[in-house]
TrEMBL record:
It catalyses: cytidine(34) in tRNA(Ile2) + L-lysine + ATP = lysidine(34) in tRNA(Ile2) + AMP + diphosphate + H(+). Its EC number is 6.3.4.19. GO terms for molecular function: tRNA(Ile)-lysidine synthase activity. The gene is tilS. Ligates lysine onto the cytidine present at position 34 of the AUA codon-specific tRNA(Ile) that contains the anticodon CAU, in an ATP-dependent manner. Cytidine is converted to lysidine, thus changing the amino acid specificity of the tRNA from methionine to isoleucine. NCBIfam families: lysidine_TilS_C (TIGR02433), lysidine_TilS_N (TIGR02432). This is tRNA(Ile)-lysidine synthase. The keyword ATP-binding applies. It is an enzyme of class 6 (ligase). InterPro entries: Lysidine-tRNA-synth_C, Rossmann-like_a/b/a_fold, TilS/TtcA_N, tRNA_Ile_lys_synt, tRNA_Ile_lys_synt_N, tRNA_Ile_lys_synt_subst-bd. Keywords: ATP-binding, Cytoplasm, Ligase, Nucleotide-binding, tRNA processing. PANTHER family: TRNA(ILE)-LYSIDINE SYNTHASE-RELATED.
Length: 464
């Protein structure tokens, strides 16, 4: 076993000479074997070894006895010891999490504290190959996403250095044999026999069957884990390139926008990976509520034939398709509140989105651009009104007979559905629509009228 672990450590460069190693020790056979393994390597690798143990207080005197046993053994082996007791039940109630999650959080918090205090290079866990196989099968049952089925990492950043798992290459039975061979005592946690916890159920009922079919299943699963991680790392880097043309914004809530045609030019594997990278950004990497079903709904949205479509994701995240544009944003009722504002000659009006309207006199009718509206004051009733669209709005367009629905103007101009409710319209005090800003202009002038001319100018926020 020692040779296999040595080769595994060297292959993955888990330990460097003169490292300070914190070993997480529960008192069970796996962690006691790990502590003894590092003790054997102490002189060869010039290591500084610290044993760290946490009493979760879930088994009363028994769990405290385990902590004291680890402390006593560390003293006998001349190893520095750090230990603590934590209140899992209180944390569980305060945070509204399960027992296992509460215990894990508090345990890792303490290990982080110990690593910082001793400036450790690595924190070593005793997870073994059977643990890895259990983890992978549990992940397969819970998720159909390949990136969610990677198992425990051999090495990952943590605290002042890294977490390492040198025993992922060996089976549980090998560790028990190692303890027997070296006369290493250990404590057994009776809760490991209870099958109300998912992992224990897999350990008791699933793993024995798999071991019967293939005694080396733990090696196969570890090899699979390493390969999946390598493949996913490569795909993720490629998917990051897909994200480069996208527009990411954190103003007034996180938001992502991109071209659907550009996005669909990439292979489906990269589209899926990019989708999850987007969610990682929007959810701050808290994507536990996202399943493969959400992924499929997103992929179907990309294929949607309708020019406007929407998809609701957890925590009020909305995905909106508008022609060739796709937008991820968090829903807010404030974004669609109707509004109406008055503006008179000489006044300046700033809209909620930061864009600005000004109304001023001008000496004579002059040329106007897309964001200016010139009208004869004798043919409009002041003050003017700037408002959002209402159901059934119609306007008479310049140079055209009859009227046209504002809704049809939006459709002709391919304005995304989510923007239409807040798009600014200008009317006079009689309610006559003069201007759908930036899109269409209505009546409001009389040829070369002799009255006072008014210029209404719309300035975008970025231009102010």
């Amino acid at each position: 076993m020692i040779h296999n672990v040595d080769s595994f450590v060297e292959k993955h460069q888990l330990i460097q000479p003169k490292s300070t190693v914190v070993v997480a020790v529960s008192g069970g056979p796996d962690s006691m074997a790990l502590l003894h393994y590092f003790l054997q390597k102490k002189e060869q690798w010039q290591l500084s070894i610290i044993a760290a143990s946490v009493d979760h207080g879930l088994r009363g005197e028994h769990s405290l006895a385990d902590l004291n046993y680890v402390k006593k053994t560390a003293e006998q082996w001349n190893i520095n010891f750090f230990g603590t007791s934590v209140d899992v039940q209180s944390y569980k109630q305060q945070q509204g999490v399960g027992t296992q999650e509460a215990a894990r959080v508090l345990r890792y918090q303490y290990f982080h504290q110990v690593m910082t205090e001793v400036n450790a290079d690595v924190l070593a866990f005793a997870h073994h190959g059977d643990d890895q196989a259990e983890t992978l099968f549990m992940q397969m049952v819970r998720s159909a996403r390949p990136e969610a089925v990677q198992g425990m990492p051999i090495k990952r950043p943590f605290g002042t250095g890294s977490i390492i798992r040198p025993f992922l290459c060996v089976a549980k039975q090998e560790l028990l044999h190692y303890c027997e061979q070296h006369q290493i005592g250990f404590k057994l946690d009776a809760s490991n026999e209870e099958t109300n916890y998912t992992r224990n159920a897999f350990r008791k009922h699933i793993m024995p069957l798999l071991k019967e079919q293939n005694p080396k299943i733990h090696l196969h699963m570890q090899a699979m884990s390493e390969r999946v991680r390598d493949d996913y790392s490569y795909i993720t880097k490629q998917a990051e390139e897909v994200l480069k043309p996208m527009r990411f914004s954190s103003e007034k809530g996180k938001r992502v926008e991109f071209s659907i045609s550009t996005f669909k030019s990439h292979p489906p594997a990269l589209q899926r990976s990019a989708f999850h990278l987007i969610l990682n950004y929007l959810y701050d990497n808290q994507t536990e509520d996202i399943s493969y079903l959400h992924e499929e709904m997103f992929m179907n949205l990309l294929k949607e034939q309708k020019p406007n479509a929407e998809l609701d994701l957890p925590h009020e995240l909305k995905v909106v398709r508008a022609y060739d544009e796709l937008t991820f944003s968090f829903h807010s009722s404030e974004d669609i509140c109707p509004y109406s504002h008055l503006i008179d000659i000489g006044e300046r009006l700033e809209l909620k989105d930061g864009h600005v309207l000004t109304l001023e006199q001008c000496p004579a009718r002059s040329d106007e651009n897309r964001y200016e509206f010139i009208c004869d004051s004798h043919h409009v009733k002041l003050p003017l009104i700037v408002r959002s669209r209402k159901q059934g709005d119609r306007m008479k367009l310049r140079g055209m007979n009859g009227s046209k629905k504002v809704k049809d103007i939006f459709i002709d101009k391919k304005i995304p559905a989510q923007l239409r409710k807040s798009w600014p319209l200008v009317t006079d005090s009689d309610g006559r629509i003069l201007w759908v800003i930036g899109l269409k202009k209505g009546e409001g002038c009389a040829g070369e009228g002799s009255g006072t001319w008014l210029r209404l100018r719309y300035t975008k926020k970025e231009d102010t």
